[in-house]
Amino acid sequence: MDLFTIVSLILITIMIIAAIIAAEIKDLLSAAIASGVMSLVVSILFYMLQAPDVAITEAAIGAALSMAVMIFGIKSTKRWEK
Fold first, then answer.
1. For 7-60, what is the HEC assignment?
2. Looking at residue 10, what is its pLDDT?
3. Residue among 16, 52, 51 nearest 37 (CA)
4. Could you report the average pLDDT of every consecutive run of 10 residues in the chain (82 residues)?
5. How crowded is the C-beta side of 76, counted as CA atoms within 13 Å?
6. Of 19, 40, 61, 63, which is least surrounded by CB within 10 A?
7. CA-to-CA distance for 69 and 63, rounded, in angstroms?
8. Reduced to 3 states, what is the DSSP secondary structure of residue 80?
């Protein structure tokens, strides 16, 4: 295995773990942060696949803007899911 494959597998594993945490955790703020981490890892993977324009868009909109909108929405409601 080359270095690219090893790093890709590590990032994919982190992405899957973050997605499971985002789906299963009851604290909504932690779930939003896990979703942002997942989007950030996806943007790194896009950059590794030589798609820098898609990576920048995913980092800006997927990780930053979506997570900010979710956090502002959580601030106006209860933080914990029933």
1. HHHHHHHHHHHHHHHHHHCCEHHHHHHHHHHHHHHHHHHHHHCCCHHHHHHHHH
2. 97
3. 16
4. 94 96 92 94 95 94 91 85 67
5. 5
6. 61
7. 10
8. strand
The structural domains of the chain, with segments of one domain joined by +, span 3-75
Q: How far apart are the first and last CA of the chain?
A: 45
Rounded to an integer, what distance in angstroms lies between the CA atom of residue 73 and that of residue 35?
14
CB pairs under 8 A, 24+ apart, for 72-77? 74/28, 74/29, 74/32, 77/28
pLDDT for the residue numbered 77: 86
Are 32 and 74 in contact, with CB atoms under 8 Å apart?
yes
Structure tokens at 35: 């979703």
By the 8 A CB rule, do 42 and 54 touch?
Answer: no
